[in-house]
Amino acid sequence: MKGAGQPVRVAHVIGKLSAAGVETVVSNYYQHIDRSRYQFDFYIDADSVIPPSRRLMELGARYFVIPPYQQLPRYMAALAGHFRAEGYQIVHAGMNSLSVFALGAAWAAGVPVRICHSHSTSAPGEPARNLLKTLLRPWAGVFATHRCACSAHAGAWLFGRRAMARGEVTILPNGIDCGRFGYCPELRAACRRRLGLQDRFVVGHIGRFCPQKNHGFLLELFGRLCREEPSAVLLLAGTGSLEGEIRRRVRAAGLEERVRFLGVVEDTAPLYQAMDCFVLPSRYEGLPVVAVEAQTAGLPCVFSEGVPWEADILPAVRRLPLAAPVWAWARAVAGCRSLPRQDGRARVAAAGFDIAQDAGLLERFYDACIRNEGGDALWTPSV
Q1: Domain identity same for 158 and 194
Q2: Are residues 171 and 32 in the same domain?
Q3: Are 378 and 138 in contact (CB under 8 A)?
Q4: Contact 226, 220 (CB under 8 A)
């Protein structure tokens, strides 16, 4: 409950903490928003694989651990109980179609502002996950008073093209701290020396080991690349359920000396400096923050068609369909070696991904939500 002169506390329902892009985005916003006006509380699942951020807690954030959504009655009861006890004005759910459960709990608890935030799209290659997302999609915003998305692509998928055309969905970009990721030749040289990569062609990828990120295909194209680029090295930052399988495939392919598993990297900015090419062969994305970070560092990038067009910022972005032959992907990656490296900060900021500006946008969005709280009006699905 907000007291006189106290900031509004916003309940952000995150789900499982797993070093994913959504967590990075919300963290970026929290670190740059006016915290004298808005403070964030994070609701995370008990089966999270990484701990809460000490940095965010030092800034005033609070974390509440709740049962995972798979234990649905306990999950909703825990959320509703917390929401009532804390007296929130705003609950902001960023779990895509699964947000229906958190926002249902917020509605039951009498929270006046209930925001449904789309960060993703369908899940090709993941039948069970895709079925759940598809079944819940028409109802994701039924308890929402306001809707937003990280991209037009993600917004149209969850809320429908008509809702986008009517201006019912606010786009909140996946903003980053451009100053941290800008290209720096001196830092690049230092990072490559530290990692022993001075004379190597460094291909990089940052993402959870899950079907969405398509590590198996990435490994296949890297194996083909190694035939043409004897100095090629692949850096993989992240963790996830498929990491063991990818490690086994690396050993089976005899690539142990070429592929480096870095685990969860808290500060990824130096990694981008060390890379020569960033590859994102995702099956689907909402708008990957790593794509924005990589281009801020001036990296040539190769994306699949699963990455929305809004992520194309620099001219050095190349796109291929996942149906293209592996040799075509390997050739596109190899071609990045000859592309010039330039600082991408100005272009990224001009494209709307500067968190210093985006945090102000979020503040104004929250201000507008509070002025027009929406009451108990339920949204009729429009697909």
Answers
A1: no
A2: yes
A3: no
A4: no
